[in-house]
Amino acid sequence: MPASRISILCVDENNVFTKTAEGILKKDLSSASYTRVENGRSALHHLSCNPVDLVLVGHHAAKSDSLRLIDDIRKRKIDAAVIMISTKGNERTAVEAMKRGAYDYLSKHELNADTLRSAIRHAMNQKRTEARHRAARERIQEQATQDGLTGLYNHIHFQQLLKKEFKQARRYSYPLYCIMIDLDDFKGVNDTHGHLFGDFVLQRSAQILQQQMRDTDILARYGGEEFVVACSHIKERGVLSLCERVRQVFAENIFENGGDTVSMTVSIGVASITEAGVHTKAELIRHADEALYEAKGRGKNNVCLWREKRSVERLIDKEHHQIIEDFQNRFLGFTDEIITKFMEYSQRIVDGIESKDPKTADHSTKVTEYAMALSEKLGLQPPEIRSVRIAGLLHDIGKAGISPEILYKKGKYTSREFRLMQLHPQFSVKMIDQLHFLDDEIQLILQHHERFDGKGYPTGRKGREISRGARILAVCDAYDAIISGRSYRKPVSRADGCRSISKEAGRQFDPQIADAFVAMIEAGFALSQ
Question: What's the Cα-to-Cα distance from 503 to each of 121, 495, 510, rounded to whole Å?
């Protein structure tokens, strides 16, 4: 912010320092604008109508609303730096002013050219730094919720929004539908016209869908060429009308860009919260996905309700059911091979991160072994234990996106570095959120730094809102970090580690899980390596 354009508001009840300040600054800030008001109410009115860079607030010991004014400026999120100037030097007042958001504090007796210039320079630099950090946070938050290509909500954010919508629909008994939309034969577009044109088709498809949706509909890119919509407060007839309109618009549209031209159709699957077997948002999505594949099976360019799929299934006799089931099992075995290869590759990445610091060596492997043993102790079913195992091995893979200078820094982090480290669950998820066979594990990875009392990150979930697998990983991750030590903290004994876990039971950790973990360690559980 150039000094020549700075605007200053002086809140000075008795005109004690305004003339002095103006006289001091005229040499350095000849083009700066000065406005004087007498009290906090007038100041807030002026600030609501006029952008101001700096507020000089006078504090008079006998009667002053200066501290309350500083509070109001912060509460109203007014983007202005504040410097307090007091008629008498008072350390207690200075501390209180800084605590409430003042950038600096001067007494009238120390008010001279050097001190005022220095205070303003410091305040303006701090204001610019805060603006950069705020912009960076906003970019990160936007990236965490938006799909980078289409600008729609991404897979993870849709899951979060649908969870809330599902709970509300259940609580207040209103209709909720999930619609899965897939671009037919999209792979051929990429193969024939290249990925740049394929990206154009996806972006244009997102725009078409946005034009067809109501303001209240939740539209997201689910992954690849699949889009998903959550529609509430709408009758089945309205949903089918919407889906048919979308199908028709795509069938009539020509995608044209840079000499490449292609026609596209869509297949659409629809599921309702009222269907049998829909008790969770995951089951609602699964029903919509099953309906989508039924629409594909009917020859594509088709809309299918889940209940229509069920009626078709009833027509298949037992012999054909067995044949289909045999092939399903074969393909499931093939999927397991893919996951195994993926995990082998991921393990090499994680090992590369952790091996560079002796204190973090094999951290993810240790956390996974603790978590699997604890899961079995708590009576989790094999599918959930499998998800805990995969999430345990991948929970820190996002640290590969953090610079080594920060990751392996000796000593304490700065506030910015600490914030970056806190983003590693989101980095992990962004790396793997296109792999739909990891949908369950992604939620565990995202939530493993949430706290039971709601003071964790990145979403601030609390209590049972946090996935059980993530609550298990939180305890195991913290315990291994405590007993292994970090560059900023010495390692401690297993007994001290258990005491730390017990101390945080009910605050950082689920108390039931924390108690079970401590009992497991105290009973003599030891890692295999």
Answer: 45, 12, 12
Which letter does DSSP use for residue 361 in this model?
T
- Cα–Cα distance, 128 to 329 (Å, whole number): 59
| Cα dihedral 241/244/245/248 (nearest 10) | -160
CB-count exposure of residue 135 (10 Å: 0-12, 13-18, 19+): exposed
For the residues of 268-295, what is the DSSP string, one character each?
A: EEEEETTSTT--SHHHHHHHHHHHHHHH
Q: Does the structure show a pLDDT above 90 at 466?
A: no
d(CA 201, CA 149): 11
How far apart (Å, rounded) are the C-alpha atoms in residues 394 and 441?
9
pLDDT: which is higher, 428 or 387: 387
Euclidean distance between CA atoms 353 and 399, whole angstroms:
7
Polymer length in residues for the chain: 529
Q: Supply the pLDDT for residue 3.
A: 45
Q: How confident is the model at residue 359 (pLDDT cuts 50, 70, 90)?
A: low
Q: What are phi and psi of 309, to 5 degrees?
A: -60, -45
Alpha carbon distance 395, 481 (integer Å): 14
Residue 225 among the catalytic residues: yes
Q: 81 φ, ψ to 5°?
A: -80, 145
Share of residues in the chain with pLDDT > 70 (%): 88
The pLDDT value recorded for residue 67 is 86
Q: Considering just the CA atoms, what is the radius of gyration of the chain in Å? A: 30
Q: For the residues 373-402, what does the mean pLDDT come to?
A: 88
How far apart, in whole angstroms, are the C-alpha atoms of residue 408 and residue 412? 11
Q: How far apart are CA 410 and CA 207, in angstroms?
A: 48
pLDDT digits (tens, 9 = 90+) for 46-77: 988 888 989 988 887 555 678 888 889 888 88
For residue 30, the cross-strand partners are none
Contacts 24+ apart (CB under 8 A), 130-139: 131/79, 133/416
Among 249, 124, 259, 99, CA closest to 194: 259
Is the pLDDT at 316 greater than 60, yes or no?
no
The separation between the first and the last C-alpha atoms of the chain, rounded to the nearest angstrom, is 58
In which residue are the tokens 């980078």 written? 148
Q: Residues 233-260: pLDDT tens digits?
A: 988 988 999 999 999 999 999 999 988 8
Measure the CA–CA gap between 526 and 329, rounded to whole angstroms. Answer: 36
- Exactly one of 225, 369, 450, 504 is catalytic; name it: 225
- pLDDT of residue 2 exceeding 50: no
User: Which positions ≥6 away from 448 have C-beta within 8 Å?
Assistant: 391, 395, 425, 470, 473, 474, 477
Q: What is the pLDDT of residue 406?
A: 82
Nearest to 510 by CA among 459, 447, 446, 463: 463
Separation between Cα atoms, residue 355 and residue 358, nearest integer Å: 6
Asked whether 291 and 239 are in contact (CB, 8 A), the reply is no
- Tokens 């959120």 correspond to what residue? 433
